[in-house]
Structure formats: structure tokens, C-alpha cells
Amino acid sequence: MKSSKRRLQALTEGSDGLPNYLKMEDSETSIPPIFRSRLHELFSQIEKEFDLLYSENLNLQEKIDILSEKLERESYVGDKQNIDYIEFETSGKNSKVKSVTQSNSQKVKASHKLKVQTSKIVSSFKAPTYNCQLIREFTGHKDGIWDVCTARPGQALIGTASADHTACVWSVEWAKCLLQYTGHSGSVNSIRFHPNRDIALTSSGDNTAHVWQAAVNWDLPRGQSSEEELEGGGEESLGEGDRPEVLRTPLIELTGHLGVVVAADWLTGGDHVITASWDRTANLYDVETGDCLQILTGHDHELTHASAHHSSRLVVTASRDTTFRLWDFREPIHSVSVFQGHTESVTSAVFTREDKVVSGSDDRSVKVWDVRNMRSALATIRSDSSVNRVAVSGAGLIAIPHDNRQVRLFDLLGQRLARLPRSSRQGHRRMVTSVAWVEDISSNINFFSCGFDRRILGWSIQPSKDN
Fold first, then answer.
1. Contact 164, 222 (CB under 8 A)
2. DSSP type of residue 390
3. What is the Cα–Cα distance from 377 to 358, expressed in whole angstroms?
4. What is the mean pLDDT of residues 369-383?
5. Which of 40, 100, 218, 230 has the highest Cβ tally under 10 A?
6. H/E element holding 318?
7. Phi, psi at residue 169, to the nearest 5°?
8. pLDDT by residue (tens digit) across 96-140?
């Protein structure tokens, strides 16, 4: 609305704020002075109306956000209240669960599963079941941030990958950038720390992935903010010690892709790397030599993500072809399984600690899969916005970042747990691209989110005391 107002002013007003035709000499216009004065008053009223409408628009947006959250909670409880009661029948080793609903008396039998709740549990449900508090903000990138990751336990560091062609390593405690990597010539699309060494892996729009030294200098001064450090690279007023260390040369460059490398990850042990590219392939590399060991083909469209299992030589790749694939490298000849179920581009797929896979998609859904059964998903989570790079905690909490600036939390059964606060004072202002959990229980910040508002937010997410 402000831009519309400025366009109107540019068309009708001069530098002194008066309409151009009102500044004309009497000989240059045939408009009588009384009408000119009246027109001036009318345009002043229009300007005031624009200001009023803009203020009302901001207030309405906040009210919409509050009502949307309330509606989500009520719809969740409403779905659960369809369940009336459960009867159990046990006979030897076989157990059956009979679920009777108010709207349908059909009995549903399940073996060794209890996926429904009693009305007593439902009536005591209070959402959210987790308290989410914004603790710290990290700023300094010059463009949108594509990815955020956490370092191995014991290191209070996070890494970020940005469209500004840089990757940064940040101190969680100081909210400072300690190391800035500038070796890529294109957007940096992902970042991952090595599981036990001080090196990092990044993928880029320059068709490469880089492995670089990620050891940081903890003796950097703590006085400057992260934003001042990153933007002060060329200022003479800052001394050398006031800026983050800048690294321009990788330890090794992984080449071979013919398109943008959109994601990369370490296989368990850290000796091999998997990359995913827009050239429709995923490559397996030897980190020490930089050699491409295998080219994985089969996807029909560009790849969007790649992720490795934490303890087994398993990899999942996601694609715009609406599928994700599970690649098994535990045997000399690898096998592959194709998972179908989404109707639009699969934006990410990650492993859980329980050997499940969680996939997110532009079809506004997140699905939980058993790696041994690719026929149907165990749970499906529906939302109102496209899903970006999901993350699953060691405790099985799914964090879902959305295009609509929201971040929602669910469990592996598909039950909604919480939504991160978002208002004009906190939360992201543009789409949230990536999230990451901290598994170090000693940290007061255990969750990070990043987005195209160029910010990284550190959160404390803890179970509610009422649980």
C-alpha cells in the first residue's frame, strides 16, 4: 500500500508535496483558484486514508495470525473428539484393538498398534504440549539463507549456507560469526559438519561441493555484533581482530556434476560424501582423493535433497519427480528402493533414529515411512503451505519449516505438538527454509531455524509442565 501511495504521489505531486497542476501560474491553467484549493484538500484526504488503511492492514494481519493458530488447535482437538472409546481383547500372543467412533460404528482391527486415543485423553489435551521461546538472533548474511546445521556434541557452533555465496560458522553463545567461507562462486545451498573432525561440507550453485577447514578462532573479540562483523569486512574503522576469519580455499573440491549441487552430506564415518544435483544424479565421492566412486541415476527430474543415515551406509535422495529413493551401500553392489506417495516435488527426506524416513513436499504434506515398507506411509501430516527442509530430533520430534513463515512440530505418529511463535516482534518475516535440532542437552538453545529474511533464530523448545 505504501508503494501505491508513492506511485500516486509521483504522478500527482512535486517535491514540495503539492499537486503539480496546483503550482502552475494562473495563466497556465484554466482551473479557478477555488477549485484548485478544493482539489488540494481532496488529495490531502486521500493521503490520510492511505495511511489509515496501511495501519489497519498491519493490525488485521496480526489478528489473522492469532486466529489461524486458534483454528489449528480447535481443528486438531475436533478430529480427536471423534473417538469415543476403545475395547481391548487379548488372546494369547495376539491382541486386537477395537475403536468405536461416534460417526461410524465400523470396528477397526490392528495388530500390536494403538494409534487412537480415548476421549478422556482427548479432553485433557492442551495444545501446545511444548513451550517454544525465542532466545537468540543471528544476523549478518547479505542474502537469503538456505540451510542451517549444528556441530557435533560438545561444540557450541552452528553453520549456515546462504545465497550470498558464503557459508558461516557461528558461536551459539556469542551470536557471532567466527569463520566465513567464501570459496564458492555461486549460491551456497547446504552445509554439514564432519561427524568427528573440524571440517565442513558445502554444496553450491557453481556445480561443485567443497570440503574446507572449519576450525574456528575462539579468541575473537566479543564486543562486536555478528552483523557488524560481516558487513565490516572493508571498513577501515575495524581492526583485523574485529572481523571474522575469512577462508577462501577448500581442502578439496568435488566436481563432476553438470548442474547446481543442491545438497551434500557425510556418510557414516565421514570417509565418503553424497551429493545431489539438478542434473538428475547423485554422486558418491571419496573424501580423501576427491574421486567420484559412483553416479546414481534413476530420478526423472532435478534432485532437491540428499541425506545419509547416522549409523548405516544408507542414503535418501529427493526429487522434483514426486519420489524419493533409498540407496543401500552396505553391500558391494548397492540396491535402491523407490518411495511414491507425494503428488508434487519432494523437497527433503531425512532418517530418524528409529530407522524411519520423514519426507516433506510441495504438496503441503509430510509423511513418515518405514524403510522396510515402501508401499504406504505410516503417518501423513497435512498443512496449509509447502514444506521445506525438515529435521527430526533424537527424541522423534519432527520440525517442519513452511513457505508461509511458520514452523510446526509433530511427533512420528503425526500428532501436532506446537507451533513456533510468529508475530511482528518475533519469528521469521519470510519463508523458513531449514531447521536443525541440537542434541547436546546442556545447551539452553536446542533448535535453530533460518529463512530468506537473512536471519537465524535460536529457540528453546521444552515440554510443557502440564504434560
1. no
2. -
3. 9
4. 92
5. 230
6. strand 314-319
7. -110, 125
8. 333 333 444 444 444 343 443 433 333 334 444 899 999 999 999
Burial 232-256 (b: 16+ CB within 10 A, else e): beeeeeeeeeebbeebeebebebeb
H or E stretch covering 63 = helix 33-80
The number of beta carbons lying within 10 Å of the beta carbon of residue 421 is: 15
Please give the sequence-ordered ranges of beta strands (E in DSSP) within 127-175, or none if there are none.
Answer: 130-139, 145-150, 157-162, 167-171
b/e code 36-73 from CB counts within 10 Å (16+ = b): beeeeeebeeeeeebeeeeeeeeeeeeeebeeebeebb
Cα–Cα distance measured from residue 20 to residue 382, given in angstroms and rounded to the nearest whole number:
55
Dist. CA 92–CA 74, nearest whole Å: 40
For residue 138, the 8-state DSSP code is E
Instruction: Find all residues with CB under 8 Å of 174, minimum gap 6, and list them.
Output: 222
Count the neighbouring beta carbons within 10 Å of the beta carbon of residue 291: 11
User: Using 50, 70 and 90 to split pLDDT, how confident is the model at 10?
Assistant: very low
- Specify the pTM: 0.72
Report d(CA 465, CA 361) in Å as an integer: 33
Burial environment of residue 143 by CB neighbours within 10 A (0 to 12, 13 to 18, 19 or more): middle
CB 398 within 8 A of CB 409: yes
Give the C-alpha separation, 460 to 420, whole Å. Answer: 10
* CB neighbour list of residue 221: distance below 8 Å, 6 or more residues apart: 241, 242
How wide is the angle at C-alpha 386 spanned by C-alphas 320 and 128, nearest 5°? Answer: 140
Instruction: Round to whole Å and give the CA distance between 412 and 403.
Output: 22
- Return phi, psi of residue 300, to 5°: -90, -15
**Which has the minimum average pLDDT: 227-236, 240-249, 297-306?**
227-236
Q: E strand or H helix at 213, and its extent?
A: strand 209-213
Of the pLDDT bands very low, low, confident and very high (cuts 50, 70, 90), residue 58 is low
**What span, in angstroms and rounded, lies between the C-alpha atoms of 288 and 363?**
39
Which secondary-structure segment (H or E) carries 264? strand 261-266
Number of H helices, E strands in the chain: 4, 31
User: What mean pLDDT do residues 231-242 have?
Assistant: 39
For residue 91, what are the contacts with CB-CB under 8 A and spacing of at least 6? none
Helix (H) or strand (E) holding 366: strand 365-370
